[in-house]
Specification:
181 residues, alpha+beta, 9-stranded antiparallel beta sheet, 4 helices, 21% helix, elongated, binds flavin mononucleotide
Length: 181
């Protein structure tokens, strides 16, 4: 029975990556670095593999990347207000270093969006005027990050009872149990 909920959450996550306007298109990514403070930000879900690896793009100079060097464990939060469904994921982040894959993904980034990864100064650097950004001509800091989940929690608020299920990756299968919502 918990299998049904797993299928539902997998379908929703896949729709997030493939359907424009789906609430799971954006998720909240939490990282915790050596400073021990959870840092949260909104991220676009770019791709979901068959075995549920989640991919996003970022600037390699951003604070999240410093956190990932210090601690590869991340938290992800998805929420769909239309059906009151929340999916919480814990996983291990890995930077994709394969040049061929990077080139393929980079080609798929629209021209205007490419600028996001080519500012001369790193993201988070102080700026006197937002209109005065300079861009690199022949260099970029485009970075692909892939997250492998090891814990997934499904929560759906509904009547007559809410449903909360925890899935834990156990070597080669997802162990599941219902939890008190
Ligand atoms: C709608 C929206 C989508 C965003 N998508 C991304 C994204 O896909 N990748 C990314 O690195 N930052 C994205 N951001 C910016 C992040 O939320 C964050 O501000 C930025 O990455 C810097 O975070 P950091 O300093 O913690 O690394 C997005 C912000 C918004 C509002």
């Amino acid at each position: 029975m918990t299998q049904n909920y797993f299928q539902e959450l997998t379908e929703e996550i896949n729709k997030g990556a493939s359907q424009k306007g789906h609430p799971f298109r954006y998720f909240t990514l939490a990282t915790v670095g050596l400073d021990q403070v959870a840092r949260l930000r909104t991220i676009v879900l770019r791709k979901v593999s068959e075995d549920l690896k989640l991919t996003f793009y970022t600037d390699s100079r951003s604070k999240k990347m410093i956190h990932l060097q210090e601690n590869k464990k991340v938290g992800l939060l998805f929420y769909n207000p239309k059906n009151l469904m929340q999916v919480r994921i814990e996983g291990m982040a890995k930077v994709v270093n394969d040049d061929k894959i990077k080139e393929k993904y980079w080609k798929g980034v629209k021209g205007s969006s490419k600028k996001d990864y080519t500012t001369t100064s790193a993201p988070g650097t102080s700026l006197s005027d937002p209109g005065q950004l300079d861009y690199l001509d022949d260099e970029d800091h485009f970075c692909i990050v892939e997250i492998t989940p090891f814990k997934i929690e499904y929560l759906k608020l509904k009547r007559p009872h809410h449903i909360r299920v925890r899935y834990s990756w156990e070597v080669d299968f997802w162990e599941s149990e219902y939890l008190v919502p």
